[in-house]
Amino acid sequence: MGPPGPMGLPTPPPLGASALPTGTFDGQSVLVTGGGTGLGLAIAVEFARLGASLVLASRSPEHLAAGAEAVQAAGAQVATVGCDIRNPEAIATAFDAATEAFGMPSVLINNAAANFPSPAEDLSPNAWRTVVDITLNGTFLCSREFARRHLSAGTPASILNVAASYAWTGGPGFAHSAAAKAGVVNLVETLAVEWGPAGIRVNGLVPGLMPHGDMTTDIRESLDRTPDLGSRQPALRVGEPHELGWAATFLASPYARFVSGHTMVVDGANWQRRTLTSPPVIPVREQMGRGPFDPGGSGPRN
After folding, report:
1. What CATH class has 29-287?
2. Which residue in 47, 102, 166, 174 is the catalytic one?
3. CA angle 120-163-77, nearest 5°?
């Protein structure tokens, strides 16, 4: 018999398992922006399993209702707050509501972001501003509000910024999001140094390909055009959303108290992969099924 073929990385333990002790976050509350759906909700549920009370923030009442139901099913108390993270006053109101519900959150998960694939030349100025405003400015404004409250109270805390690997590599088709996420990663490194003396840790978390039911239509359609997603990863599989949740709970836990200013990538080494010879270059427009650029066409997204 010849040597066995590639096997990839083993699948994770099942949903509901945890490496951290039961009750790790007892008595604490965690605020998750964009926590009603997708990866933000997967993170929220893992904190819920470990004893935290959750505050979910989102602009969508429907997302908040669905997210609250999932967190309650995991056995945790949950509060929801409507919040546009582009608005500093709305953020302050959200933290007031969170504090009234469960006391000042000790963990902030900056997960909310805006994104859609587009060639850079098709992006309207408003589309560019919107993505940067939500993804980068919103992350900073939430971090600032959270930190100011803990600095005033003299209490320790932890911030996790959800980033993306194209913050380092660039992201053809995602110029707006990649630029914003580069800023999000830089905030991790800057704020960890500034706020470390006050007991506030700041880390980042980068998900790999973790398909879930809440993906936007355009991103889902892009994935649907790519057959056999697992075989295109070094792990030979895609990630499970709860694997990101496990990483988040570790980084915010007492067992990572000397970890700050670090961005952890949870993607099975996908972002480091290279080929021995350069593959053919396929222009972004062609990858997205768009015709040649037409400055007079329907073109830029608003």
Report:
1. alpha beta
2. 166
3. 130
Indicate the domain borders of the chain.
29-287
255 in catalytic set:
no
What per-residue confidence (pLDDT) applies to 215?
62
**pLDDT 10s digits, 157-193:** 999 999 999 999 999 999 999 999 999 999 999 999 9
pLDDT in tens, 205-236: 999 999 876 666 666 666 666 778 888 899 99
Average pLDDT of the chain to the nearest whole number: 93
Strand partners, 32: 56, 109
Q: Which of 186, 198, 185 lies closest to 158, judged by CA?
A: 198
> How far apart (Å, rounded) are the C-alpha atoms in residues 86 and 139?
9
> How confident is the model at residue 301, as a pLDDT?
53
Confidence of residue 2 (pLDDT cuts 50, 70, 90): low
pTM exceeds 0.90 for this model: yes
Distance CA 164, CA 156 (A): 26
